[in-house]
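Progress report, Aim 2. The chain analyzed during this reporting quarter is listed below.
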Amino acid sequence: MKSWRVLVLAAAAMLAAASAAKAEYDVIAQTNVEYAQHDGVKLVGDLYQPKGLPKAPAIIAVHGGGWQNGSRAGYRYWGPFLARNGYVVLSIDYRLGKAGTFPGSAYDVKAAIQFVRARAETLGVDPERIGLMGDSAGSHLVALVALAGAEPLFSSGYRDDPNAAVPVNVKAVVAFYELRAVPRSCAVCGMTLSAVPA
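Predicted structure tokens for the chain:
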């Protein structure tokens, strides 16, 4: 449990040091920004932007909650903090549920990346500097999409999305909580870690 706190403190210290020479920005916050619709579900996020900063790096923030609960509100403090320090943050909700919904939530994260990249100019984002941040189940999803977002399992669905052709590559991933904390078999996320040594 201490390791994630150290990681959070280290990340905050790096952000503070990196922004020490920069001005703090006023924050523009928008709630319920629709980034996609999947299977009749409207997917929304909260958007935090640094006012007056063109081509800012962007972070898609993905909440935890065991793939069954949680919400984008988990980043209601991180979003404004990061925006004040020069980052655009889209804190998203994704589809939650029981076994059988995988890989739907991964497609939702992928759609958020595509939304931000497709609207980079309007959002004031540098489309070549998009990263992902997630905690717990969100860390699983951001790692999965960053490493395998273009693989067939995650690229064959939702081809009618308005931004389906937009690339999903990202420059960085911040994943809070270690993967070893994930159970070896996860009925909710649909995966088994049998190939991973205990």
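The chain is about 30% helix and 25% strand. Residues 192-198 have pLDDT under 50 and may be disordered. These observations will guide the mutagenesis work planned for the next reporting period.
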